[in-house]
Design brief:
Its main location: membrane. With 341 residues, the protein is mostly helical. It has 13 helices and no strands. Helix 7 packs parallel to helix 12.
Amino acid sequence: MLLAAVILIVGVALIFDFINGFHDAANSIATVVSTRVLSPNLAVAWAAFFNFIAAFGGGVHVANTMGKGIINFDMLRDAGPTAVLSVIFSALVGAIAWNLLTWWWGLPSSSSHALAGGMIGATLPVLSFQGLVGSGIAKIAAFIVLSPLIGMVLGTSLMLVSTWVVHKQTPLYVDVWFRRLQLVSSAIFSFSHGTNDAQKVMGIIAVVLFGTIWKDRPFHIDWWMIISCHAAISLGTFFGGWRIVRTMGHSLTKLAPIGGFSAETGGGVTIIALAAAGIPVSTTHTITGAIVGVGATRGWRAVKWGVAGRIIWAWVFTIPAAALMAALVYGLTQLVVRLVG
């Protein structure tokens, strides 16, 4: 019975990973599609490929943070297999529900923060505040602000440098070369997306396994977790939705290939660097900051700040909203268990 429950929840975790790719596909392809460097179908295939390739060079620092840096793993494991499975199931379902809602609304919210919020909301009814790792949550909260700012600074800087380098060239020459370079920058960002986002679910799967059927083994990330999570997120990216692409690539600001290159490179470099430090940042926040920074180089009015404001509100509400949903799922789950029992 326990093994079946573990397999079920690992499956739910991989479904979350697929939805994460589906939900965040826009982050990887919005700029390359909006600048018409690639068609939507080619863009998602390109992004999905580099999501998967990240399995072979992305490391597992973020996975370890998600597994042991938000909730007290040892305390949860000591609470017993039922507690572990209930908390992780509720966290995943709460995060999935928020992701699907924001996808439906066309808002690029953070899957990373939805999952973190889900874990917080599901843990509180079981372990109270003692079950939370305050320093890890504070780090994630800090980078809600810092990651888009870093992405904005890098995106703006790259845009200014690129513009200066080619200022004597004809517009046609600039367009042709940056269309080629945008294939590289899109690959960088898609690699960073896989590196950061796929690792989150590896950490969740490790919590499930090493908190239940393998509780006598040391916590670590196995190779099959890495491959399966990258495969799930890349498939999700391949089937990604168009709603958020419109918001990111068209509604926020208008981008030329040189701008798309600057935004993708700035966002991708930021995410790869922070993933190497084990910080599970939001790819959504980071690329949005980079896009806004690039747009702002053309003047304040080049950015549609009303759209940016809607996105920021989605950022603010993601962790508490996902936490509330996860807590509700946990409560409903316990009610069903009591009724069945």
